[in-house]
Specification:
It is built from 12 helices and 5 strands. By secondary structure, it is α/β, with parallel strands linked by helices. The chain has a single domain (2-301), classed as SGNH hydrolase (Rossmann fold), CATH 3.40.50.1110. The protein has a 5-stranded parallel β-sheet. α3 (55-58) links the parallel β1 and β2. The N and C termini lie far apart (75 Å).
Amino acid sequence: MKQLLAKSLLFLLPLIVFFIYLEVNLSTIQNSYSYKRQCFEQQLDSIEVLVLGSSQVVYGINPAFFTLHGFNLSNVSQTLYYDTHLPLAYLDRMPRLKYVMINISYFSFGEQLIDGREAWRDYYYSQYWDVNFPEMEYLDSKRFSKIFLYTPMRSLSYFWDSFQVDLIKNYEPSGYARIDTTFHTQSDSTGFLRVRTHDDCILEKRIAENQRDVEEFIRVLQARNITPVLVTPPVCETYSKFINHEKMQQNYDRVQSICSKYNCKYFNYFSDNRFTRTDFCDNDHLNFIGAEKFSRIINREVLVAR
């Protein structure tokens, strides 16, 4: 029995060493979550405008065009839960913060990551932001291991590339990610499919909890004399023509109720005709040209609402 255990240990030891080697090296790779936290924490004492939201905001708002010092804390598929929970631990360290922009897209109120195909993103927030969605499995390996977070196959591919991978391409220290192209992929067919994908993410059971999170966040901000503003970013007509107008009206009514209750402003650019197809790279994401236009509009129209 002792010989069997010794042989098993000799067999397992190289695997354990390789596992540890992978974990250590994977932890050195910057991704959008780790990079944003690093940049955000380096600028806390100077940020005056904090921008929150999902990919429509990641690629659509460039704080470089603000008069005030802004930071874009949005991320791909980021939900209202994370929009309203990520900043909370930092507010005491942000003495100059004046505005917080809360993104309200077509799908925002009805979405939680854990319900869909991108539930894996919850674990990135857990590992890199120490923010845990309450319904996550506590003992899930993705909460503790980089190998299982990235997946074993992808981890091995990074190993073969000597961990020299760029997961933050086009991300800037302001948190903005530049879509550096004027090539357009939008069409009625892809716009229809994009809207249907977002419709599938909208669950009625999530609406009340997301609204509660937004309202509680607004109360926290206002208690600190920080101005919350709600913003709906523009989309291309190939997207807007296929939305469920009843759902959109419900969104609008919900936002108007919040704004009336807390005396805050709402800016709806969803179908703003100042944006044309050349401003978008696809059906609902601005390219760098559209992002500059949108950011300048926000600077003129939103950041004077205080």
